[in-house]
Specification:
four-stranded antiparallel sheet; 292 residues; alpha+beta; 13 strands
Length: 292
């Protein structure tokens, strides 16, 4: 089983970087997201010795990469970053997916009439997606994601995954993880990745899961990262029943700058430590580009 490394955030201080790092705070995020967002910012600001610059969507730089949560994908580069992850051949292979013109979705459905499918508008693969069940009207789904006939869409099987986990990633490495459920009194554990904790989607309750399930999920994420070392973001991995055996499968690949992915209950001290190690590579922008 994978073994985590002790948190080293408190020992890291970076003084040789010259640019400030803007970090957007979204006033419309849910309370639980706000807690983890503030926790990550605290660790980053403490280690980077005051170089973090809080901003809003209105005062964020007009170019470069701004850190922090941007769920609608309106900051410069956010949707392009997400799109690049889904254009990656290794991501497509992990999803058993392909990129096709929207006009060919009907044909793709006909090839696998009993298989549920997920379609994503490649212009916004994280925000514009639909899960199609066998027999669904594809035109209604395409309209819902804003895809016209000539628009490229990502299409891949929908396996009705359960027990989903989020693996937080920096520089192609998993920093920490959590079941995809938030509980206030469990967040930011000391050296705990909840390996024996899963979420039952039917009841939305925590259950004690088989450690082999979590290990299979971790292995699936690592296999993808070996081929495609995601610079920053997260990989969601679920489980599905294959003839009585639980198998892991990639559900979603999220490319985003630091703070751009909700971590659920994952340990932000360890996540921040890895971000700090790679801060230069994660594209801070000069402070003079900040709006007044």
């Amino acid at each position: 089983m994978w073994k985590r490394q002790p948190s080293q955030t408190s020992e890291i201080r970076i003084t040789n970087m010259k640019t400030d790092i803007p970090y957007v705070f979204d006033a419309y995020v849910a309370p639980e997201e706000r807690v983890q967002d503030a926790t990550l910012y605290y660790y980053l600001d403490r280690a980077l010795e005051g170089r973090m610059v809080p901003c809003s969507f209105q005062t964020a730089p007009a170019s470069g990469v701004t850190w922090g949560m941007d769920r609608p994908g309106i900051l410069p580069g956010r949707r392009e970053m997400a799109r690049a992850a889904y254009e990656n051949t290794h991501t497509l292979a992990a999803l058993d997916g392909s990129i096709i013109p929207a006009a060919l979705v009907v044909q793709k459905i006909a090839e696998s009439p009993e298989q549920g499918l997920t379609i994503r508008n490649l212009k916004d693969p994280l925000g514009s997606l639909r899960h199609m069940q066998p027999g669904d009207d594809s035109s209604a789904h395409l309209h819902a994601i804003g895809a016209s006939e000539d628009d490229p869409v990502v299409i891949h099987p929908d396996y009705d995954l359960r027990h989903k986990r989020r693996f937080m990633v920096v520089a192609g490495k998993i920093t920490c993880e959590s079941p995809k459920k938030f509980k206030m009194d469990l967040i930011n554990p000391s050296d705990d990745d909840f390996e024996d904790l899963q979420v039952d989607e039917r009841t939305d309750q925590f259950i004690h899961g088989d450690l082999d399930w979590r290990d299979a999920q971790h292995a699936a994420a690592m296999t993808l990262l070996t081929a495609y070392p995601l610079p920053c973001g997260a990989i969601d991995v679920g489980l599905y029943n294959d003839g009585g055996e639980m198998r892991a499968r990639i559900d979603c690949v999220i490319a985003a700058p630091p703070g751009g992915v909700f971590p659920y209950m994952a340990d932000m001290s360890r996540h921040a430590a890895k971000i700090i190690e790679h801060a230069d590579e994660l594209s801070p922008v000069p402070s003079e580009e900040m709006a007044p």
